From TrEMBL, chain B:
<comment type="similarity">
    <text>Belongs to the binding-protein-dependent transport system permease family.</text>
</comment>
<protein>
    <submittedName>
        <fullName>ABC transporter</fullName>
    </submittedName>
</protein>
<keyword id="KW-0813">Transport</keyword>
<dbReference type="GO" id="GO:0005886">
    <property type="term" value="C:plasma membrane"/>
</dbReference>
<feature type="transmembrane region" description="Helical">
    <location>
        <begin position="70"/>
        <end position="92"/>
    </location>
</feature>
<keyword id="KW-1003">Cell membrane</keyword>
<keyword id="KW-1133">Transmembrane helix</keyword>
<dbReference type="InterPro" id="IPR035906">
    <property type="entry name" value="MetI-like_sf"/>
</dbReference>
<dbReference type="InterPro" id="IPR000515">
    <property type="entry name" value="MetI-like"/>
</dbReference>
<dbReference type="InterPro" id="IPR051393">
    <property type="entry name" value="ABC_transporter_permease"/>
</dbReference>
<feature type="transmembrane region" description="Helical">
    <location>
        <begin position="12"/>
        <end position="35"/>
    </location>
</feature>
<feature type="domain" description="ABC transmembrane type-1">
    <location>
        <begin position="66"/>
        <end position="277"/>
    </location>
</feature>
<feature type="transmembrane region" description="Helical">
    <location>
        <begin position="253"/>
        <end position="278"/>
    </location>
</feature>
<dbReference type="GO" id="GO:0055085">
    <property type="term" value="P:transmembrane transport"/>
</dbReference>
<keyword id="KW-0812">Transmembrane</keyword>
<feature type="transmembrane region" description="Helical">
    <location>
        <begin position="153"/>
        <end position="179"/>
    </location>
</feature>
<keyword id="KW-0472">Membrane</keyword>
Length: 449, 288
């Protein structure tokens, strides 16, 4: 009986599929590509049945574009696998949704989510499919793997490009005022003073979206680790703190200095991220400490201004140790209890392939180099990203702290808002943040806290 | 046996309601007391005693949260009582377009809190907002309503009052209309004016309405969350954080045990403040 049923199902699905192929071919004579794909698939077992896998992504325009592009390319290559996309909010709310859906057993087959400390909080052993021995891992650059690994196992392939934390700047204003890209913090402050004197906002603040307030602190990590190469390990082991490590404390003091000198736009507490980008593109503000992932949004909204927007790393004490803090791409993860592991793996493999990269860069402007070996940036890459490549080529990059330590306090946006608004000094902010970090470390049950 | 038959309904009728009540109220309450004593990631938990509570009380922003919650509850409560009473008196007096005015006052209550919050936070933008542009037109430099740490909380409280006063007014209208006409007639006989009418009749006899408004708006203020979240997310920094928004942030951080402990604390705080207030007001009402 059951055998008969399965025969029936196979028969019906084959005919449905055939009909689909015929319809797809349309009026043109059988395109050889389609027939080939069809033949190859029916060769592998069970592949004639059309399978739908689900994919969860965050709802920013850029993520949606990338997912759409990559799914279209994937479905073309594997016509028997349909990928259904679902969106979720970003930020803390999105974290909540992902964690809750994993905990309640209601996760999609594949989902895109941050790498680094946020991924560590997902309870990987229990929730994610181990992808350590998948062949595609050979294409992935080595520095990405630890950020999606837990206890020696790798759980994802990279989706999207790397990003950098640093300062966007308006090249027109820089040229008009005869300024050059600063290599030390003192030079940056001197530039800002001149910009202010010219009646332009030197530093754009967009604290209405409070996550943007963290950038000066986070993008300073290259300088922190240049001063103390063991910072991340000691920090995770509760041996150094932001308030007591001289280099780390500077990250907060830099923000305090910007606040004290009044370099930000007057209404920075009511300005949103989108409004901040607009100020930068229109030249109302000269410099914007931000992640380079703003590149596609800038490109979409201000395509004719892109050549005026450059990017530099947040400078430290000396020009000799000037380098870039880098954010790793997100990961494409597979839910451990998925019913379509085979198809999901094919999808992640495609995402991490050169074809996948081509689809991604066609759908959205990359915000930095890709984490796949041999992947090249397209020629029309944004000026800001072009200015990032010397740091990569000269090996002057370091991953942000959240990719080398599992701890990142959740109140940092509020704390940096207070420092940036002059409510707290840099030192006070660092002390409060140390407490916040302690709370997370305790909740994670880390050793030594 | 005979006793059972005296009852109109058997206990069996209670079972459906009791099951729902147990499942939806009692069980989660007990569970939350339990999970507040654990480190919990939704799938597994470790018992850590009172550590969560200790940590919650050490939270730098918690003291601000307590203070803010009290200020917020008091300000919104007092303003709703005063404005609600005045509007109630006004809307029960002999005026034109009474029905229209009543619905105008009540209208904000029907709006989604989030929509109100987003709209007002745009209107309160310091340079491009409607409010400050209007003030600038008559030569007043408006403050940064939500950015200035000294007034941000009050700005949010004012919006809460704008949204909630209609409800208070409706309660007052009902209270005032239920005052028997005889009192007014007696007052007219004795030759009392409008002020006496308000002070000696309306104010004392609408006491039950006052009590309802106080209790409802005070508890509402204590556990308020949505408006603050839509307007400031507790910012700038921590300046407009209420206990509820602090708890929400702990959930967002993934500290589920800690956040549950916060909810237990909020529960205790609301009970500790609202219960005595309630019984005090009730006693007063009985003395009438």
């Amino acid at each position: 009986m059951s055998k008969q049923t399965s025969k029936w199902v196979a028969g019906i699905s084959t005919s449905v599929l055939l009909a689909g192929v015929l319809a797809g071919c349309g009026t043109t004579s059988t395109s050889s590509g389609d027939t080939k794909g069809q033949a190859a698939d029916s060769g592998s077992k069970k592949a004639d049945e059309k399978v739908t896998i689900s994919l969860l992504i965050d709802n920013t325009q850029d993520s949606v574009n990338i997912a759409k592009g990559i799914v279209a390319a994937f479905e073309k290559k594997y016509p028997n696998i349909h990928v259904e996309q679902e969106t979720r909010p970003g930020g803390g709310e999105g974290d909540n949704i992902v964690k809750t859906r994993l905990a309640t057993g209601d996760m999609t087959d594949v989902f895109f989510y941050n790498s680094g400390s946020l991924m560590q909080a997902l309870n990987p052993e229990q929730n994610l499919l181990d992808l350590t021995s998948e062949p595609f891992q050979a294409n992935v650059i080595d520095s990405f793997k630890p950020t999606v690994s837990s206890k020696g196992k790798i759980y994802a392939g990279p989706i999207g490009s790397t990003m950098a934390g640093g300062w966007f700047y308006n090249k027109k204003i820089y040229a008009d005022l005869g300024l050059s890209v600063p290599k030390t913090w003192a030079e940056l402050m001197a530039n800002s003073e001149k910009i202010k004197a010219a009646g332009i906002t030197p530093v754009i603040g967009s604290y209405k979206d409070d996550w943007t307030s963290q950038l000066v602190v986070l993008a300073d990590y290259y300088n922190v680790q240049a001063a103390n190469p063991k910072f991340a390990d000691e920090y995770t082991a509760n041996k150094v703190k932001y308030a007591t490590d001289a280099g780390a404390l500077k990250s907060f003091e830099k923000l305090e200095e910007i606040a004290k000198k009044g370099y930000m736009n007057k209404d920075f507490l009511a300005t949103t991220y989108d409004a901040g980008l607009k100020m930068l593109a229109e030249g109302k503000g000269a410099q914007y400490p931000m992640l380079s992932f703003a590149t596609p949004a800038l490109g979409q909204n201000f395509p004719d201004k892109m050549k005026d927007i450059g990017f530099f790393a947040q400078p430290g004490e000396s020009a000799a140790t000037n380098g870039l803090t880098v954010w790793m791409p997100s990961g494409a993860y597979i839910y451990k209890a998925t019913k379509h592991a085979e198809q999901a793996k094919k999808f992640v493999e495609f995402v991490a392939s050169l074809d996948g990269i081509a689809a991604q860069s066609a759908a959205s402007m990359p915000s930095g180099p890709y984490a796949i070996k041999g992947a090249k940036l397209p020629d029309n890459v944004a000026q800001a990203v072009k200015e990032m490549t010397p740091y990569f080529d000269g090996n002057k990059t370091a991953p942000a702290l959240e990719f080398v330590s599992p701890i990142k306090g959740s109140s940092l946006p509020q704390i940096t808002t207070e420092v940036g608004a002059g409510i707290k000094t840099g030192k006070q902010g660092a002390e409060v943040y140390d407490k916040d970090v302690e709370k997370q470390a305790k909740q994670l049950g880390l050793q030594g806290w | 046996m005979a006793k059972v038959f005296k009852r109109t309904y058997s206990y069996a009728f209670l079972i459906p309601a009791a099951i729902i009540y147990l499942l939806i109220f009692i069980f989660p309450t007990i569970m939350s007391f339990f999970f507040s004593l654990t480190r919990w990631n939704l799938t597994s938990w470790t018992f850590i005693g009172l550590d969560n509570f200790k940590m919650f009380f050490q939270e730098a922003s918690l003291l601000i949260g307590f203070k803010n919650t009290l200020i917020y509850a008091l300000v919104t409560c007092v303003l709703k009582v005063v404005l609600g009473l005045l509007l109630g008196v006004f809307l029960t007096s002999k005026i034109r377009a009474k029905g229209y005015l009543r619905s105008v006052i009540f209208f904000p209550t029907l709006l989604s809190t989030i929509a109100v919050g987003i709209t007002f936070s745009m209107m309160m933008h310091p340079t491009q907002g409607l409010i400050n542009t209007a003030l600038a037109a008559i030569g007043i430099a408006g403050p940064d309503w939500l950015g200035d740490t000294r007034i941000a909380l009050l700005s949010v409280a004012l919006v809460d009052v704008w949204k909630g006063v209609g409800f208070a007014t409706v309660i007052y209208i009902a209270g005032i209309l239920s005052i028997p006409q005889e009192y007014y007639e007696a007052l007219e006989m004795d030759g009392g004016g409008a002020f006496r009418k308000f002070w000696n009749i309306i104010l004392p006899l609408s006491r039950p309405a006052t009590n309802s408004v106080i209790i409802l708006s005070f508890i509402g203020g204590l556990r308020s969350f949505d408006l603050v979240w839509a307007m400031t997310k507790g910012g700038p920094g921590f300046t407009t954080d209420l206990i509820a928004s602090i708890i929400y942030k702990q959930y967002q951080g993934g500290y589920y045990g800690l956040a549950t402990a916060g909810n237990v604390i909020l529960f205790i705080v609301v009970t500790a403040l609202a219960l005595p207030l309630y019984s005090y007001l009730n006693r007063k009402e009985a003395e009438l």
